Amino acid sequence: DNTWPLVIDWSDWFAGLIDQIGGTFTITVSSWFPDPAITEVGKSFDDTNKKTYLYGSGGAAGTTYNVLNRISYTSSELSGQTFTEDRTIQVKIKDK
């Protein structure tokens, strides 16, 4: 019954793009795709610090679940086109 946060820090990845391409990048959308056993309670993102958040609940103690985060972003150097990038993280549910 607990609710917990997941965070993905995209700042290092964006720093690599800035080194290669230059300009600025802006996260426009953050979508989460958790395992069906995980309930998405809420989500948000912080474009300034390039972090995305999922607030979840559920799952069975001792089980590891995959959770995918897909962001859409734009680049000032690439004609304002929208691009996507995915990251999958694993979450292990523990008893308290």
Features:
mainly beta, three-stranded antiparallel beta sheet, 1 helix
Rough shape?
Answer: elongated
Question: What order do the helices and strands follow?
Answer: EHEEEEE
Specify Rg, calculated over alpha carbons: 15 Å
- Provide the spatial order of strands within the biggest beta sheet: 1-4-3
Poorly predicted ranges: none
* Contiguous helical run count: 1
Structural class: mainly beta
Give an overview in words.
The protein has 96 residues and is mainly β. The protein is 11% helix and 59% strand. The chain has one helix at 11-21, and strands at residues 3-9, 25-34, 38-46, 51-58, 64-75, 82-92. The chain has a three-stranded antiparallel beta sheet with strand order 1-4-3, with no helix packed on it. A hairpin with a 4-residue loop joins strand 3 (38-46) and strand 4 (51-58). The longest helix is centred in the first third of the chain and has 11 residues, at 11-21. The radius of gyration is 15 Å and the shape is elongated. The chain starts with a strand and ends with a strand.
Compose a concise summary of this entry.
The protein has 96 residues and is mainly β.
Write the layout of secondary structure elements.
Elements: E1 3-9, H1 11-21, E2 25-34, E3 38-46, E4 51-58, E5 64-75, E6 82-92
Antiparallel strand pairs: 1-4, 2-5, 3-4, 5-6
